[in-house]
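Key idea: predict the complex, not the pieces.
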Amino acid sequence: MRFLRRSLTARLITLFLLVTILPLSIIGYISYLKGRQGIIEKVKSKLESVAILKEQEIRNWVEHLEHTVFWLVEDRETIYDANSMKIHTVGTPEYLKARDSLVWEFRRVMEMGHFSAILYLDSESGKVIASSDTLWDGQFKENEPYFIKGKEGIYVSDIYFSLNLGKPTMVISAPVKDDNGKLLGVIVAHADLKYLSTIMLERSGLGDTGETFLVNSSNLLITNTVFAPDGAFKKWIFGQGAKWALEGKSGVDLFIDYRGVPVIGAYRWMGDLKLALIAKQDQSEALTIINKLAFTVLGIGLSIVLIVIVLSILFARTITRPILKLVNGTEMVGAGNLDYRVGTLAKDEIGELSRAFDRMTKNLNDTTVSHGELAKEVTERKRAENRLKDYSEKLEEMVEERTKELKDAQEKLVRKEKLAFLGQLSGSVGHELRNPLGVISNAVYLLTTVHGDADETTKEYLDIISSEVQNSEKIISDLLDFSRTRSPDIDRVYVSEMIDGVLKKRPSPNGVTITTEVAEDIPPIYVDPRQVGQVLDNLIANAYQAMPEGGELKIKAEEIKKKVNLSITDTGLGILKENMKKLFEPLFTTRARGIGLGLYVSKGLIEANGGQIKVKSKEGSGSTFTIILPVKEGRS
Amino acid sequence: MRIAIFKISALLVFTTLSLFACNSGEVKGSLEDITVQLKWIHHAQFAGFYVAVKKGFYSEDNADVTLNSGGPAISPDTVISDLVRGKADFAIVGGDVLIKSRSLGEPVVAIAVIFQRNPYVYVTLKGSGIESPQDLVGRKVMVPDDGKIQHDALIKKLGIAKSSITIVPFERDTAPLITRRVDAYMTYRTGSALAFEEEGYEVNFIWVENYGVRLYGDTIITTERMIRENPDLIESFLRATLKGWRYAIENPEEAVEATLEYDIKLSKFRQLRMMQVQTPLIHTGKEEIGWTDRDVWVVMRDILLGKDAIDIDEAFTMRFLNDIYGKQKQEKMR
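Result:
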C-alpha cells in the first residue's frame, strides 16, 4: 500500500520535476553558456584591445625614442661637434669643447626622460668618446651590435641587462654623418625602461588578476607583473600564450598561463622588437559575474525544485488519497463489509470511479443479502433435519424400549399365566400326592417300630425312604405354598422367640456353629408367625446347605429406623454374580434337588407381611439374607 | 608458433647486439656516472649544478653527477689534463683557458657558456679618481694569476705600456686596497669584490668586459672523444644543467640552500649576494642561458692568440645548445 502511494507520488514528482526542471535547466544551461560565451568574448575583446593598445603604446614609445635619436644625429650641432671631435686631436681645447657640447646636448635630451645614458662612439675604434655619464668614457663597444649596426643606420637592440646601468635597457643607436655622408661616429642611447614598465603595469579595467607583460624570445620575463612583482629578468615564462606568441602568432584565447592557472588572454608577437606581449586575466575572475549569475540561477532553480516537489506532493495527494480510500474500500468490501461506502464529493474521474465502486458495492450488498437468508434457511433446515434424525433415532430407541417393555410384560404375563397354571397344577398334584406320602411315612414308621431288630441294611433303607419322604413332603409343601396365596394371619411376634422356635425345629448339622445376636430392646413385630417363621426356616436351611464343609451361621436382629432387620449370615460358598438377579425368581435353583420355589415363595410371604427381603453376597465367602419387617402392623 | 620462435630469436639477437654495442661504448650502465670538475671551491658560482643535482634534474636523465671542487691547489692545467685523461667527463673552466688549451693541442671543446660575461673587475676606491683602465697608468694593481691574461689583453687593447702599471702579487683580502697599498684590486665581481661592499667601503667596479675584452667566463667543456662517442649523454647532462641554472636564477634562495649542502661553512648572506650579482653575467637577456656566440669566440681568439692562430670552430660546438633550444628559435633570434 505504502509502496503504491510512494511510487505513484514519486512518479508524479518525477514527472513534474522533469516537466519543470528539464526546460528550466536547458534554458539555464544554454543561457549560462551564452552568457559565459558572451562574457568570454567581451573579456577577449577587452584584452585584445588592451594588448593592441599597449603594443601601440610601446611602438609609439620606441618610435619616439628612435625619433629622438634620429633627431639627435641629424642635429646640426651634433654633426658640428662630432666633426669637430673628428678633426681635432684628443685633448685639445677644440676637441674638449666639442665633446662638452655633445655631452651637454645628451644631458638635455636625457632631461626629457626615457633615456638612462647616451653615448657617442668613435666611428673607427668603437670607443666611448663622449657620454652623459663619465662612467662610460673610454669603454670600447666595437664588438657590440649597436655599434656595428648603428654605423649603418638606426638600430634598436633587444632588451638586455646592462652592467654599467645595473638594470635592463634597450639601446637605440644611429650614425652621425657629416654633410658628405662620411661617418663620424655612432650615438648610442640607452632607453630607460621605466616607461615600458609603466605601460605594462597600467592595468585599469583588468581586475585583480589581470596583467600585461613582455616576454623576450628566450621566454624571459622583461617587465614585472602582478604575480611576479620582481620577476623582470629573473623569471622565465612558459605559459601557452607566450608559447603561441613566440611562434610568431597573435590572437586571443583561453589557455593555461605560466602559473598553471586557466586564463583568458591576448598574445601578440612584436617581431621587430622580438617581444611577446601578453594581456591576460584569470578565467575565475573574468567569469565571476556569470558564475555568480549561475549560482543565483542554480539557487532559484533549487527553490523551484523544492516548490515543485512540495506542490507535486500536494497534488499527488489529491489523486492518491481518493485512490487510497478506494483501495481501502476494496479491502473492506473484500473482507466482507458490504456496507462500506467510499463516499466522495469529487467531481473528477476518480470521484466517478469511487461512486461507481459504491454503486457496485451496494448492488453486491443487495444480492448478497438474499443469498444470506437462503443460507440461513438452509442451515435451519439442516438443523431441523438433524434434529429429526436424532428424534427418529430416539424414537426407534423408545420403540425398542417399549417393545422390550412390552415383551417383558408379555413374558411376565405369560410366566404369570404359566405360574398360575403351574400353581393350580402343582396344588392339585401336591394335594393328591400328600396322602400317599402320608401313607408311606406311616408305613415306614410302623416298619421301624415293629421291626426294630431288622438287619442293618433294612434299617438303612428305611431311613433313606423316611428321608426322601421328608424331602418330597417339603417339595409338596413348597408347591402348596406356591399355589396358595394365603393372606397372612397377623399376630404379635417376639423375634427372639421366633428364632429360637425355628432353630429348635431345625438343629445345626455337624460343623456349623450358630450365633444369635438379638438386640434386647427390639420391639415385637406384627406379622403372620407361621409365614415369617417358614421364611426364616427356609433361609436357615439354605444356609446349612451352603456350608456343606461346616462354618458359622450368624443370626442377627436389630431395629433400624422403626424396622426390624433380621439377618442370616453364612460363611458358605456365596452366590455367583450372574445368579444374583435371578435369585428370587421362581423355578430358579442351583441345586440338583429342589424345584427352585423356596426363595420365590419366601419373598412373596415377606412382601405379604409388609416387609422386604434383601441379599448380599460375596463369591466364596458367604452370603447375608436380610428380612426387613415393620415394627407396627403393616397392612392392618 | 613459427612466428613466435622467429620473434623470440630476433629479440635475442637484438638484445645480444645491443649488449655488444653497450660494451663497446663508454656507457657504464643504466645509471650514468658523470664527474664534473669545477674550476673553484664549492660556492654559488656553481649553484646551477647543485640545484640540478638536488632537484633531480640529472637523475631524471638517469645520470648520477659528482661535482668535484677545484681550488687554489688545482690549476686550470690540472683541470684540463684530468679531463683529457678521463678523470672527469666535464669541466668548468674560463673561456680563456679553453682557447689556450686548444692552442696547446688539447682535444677539449666548449659545449656551453655559463658566464656570458666575465666577472673580472678592477676594484678602486671611490674618490681615487680611478674610474677606467686608462687611469691605471702609473699605478699599483693587484692582479690574480688567472686574471693576468685578461689584464694583459686589456692593456694591450687599450694601448697601455705593460711597464706603466705595477703588478703586485695577489692577496685574497680587502686590506691592500683599503690601506692604499695598491690602487686597484683585480678580482671577481662575484667573489672577493663582494667583501668591499660587505665591509661598507664605497668602491668603483671597472668591468674588463666594458673595454672590448670580452672573454667568456665559466664554460662547460668536454673532450672531442666524448662528443664523438657519447653525444646523448652530453645533451642530457647539458639540458639538466641549464635547467638547474634557470631554476637557480628564478629561486636564488633555494639555489643558495643547495649550495650550502656542498659546504656548510659558507656564508648564506654572501652566497645570496653572489647569486644576485652573478645573475646578469649568466643571462644578459640577449641570449638563452648557456648560449655561445661564434663572434665572441673569434674575438676571444683574436685577443688571446691572434688572428687565425687556431680553428675557432673546433674549440666550441653549438650542436647541443641547438638541440636543446631548437635551431629554428635561434635563427629567429638572430
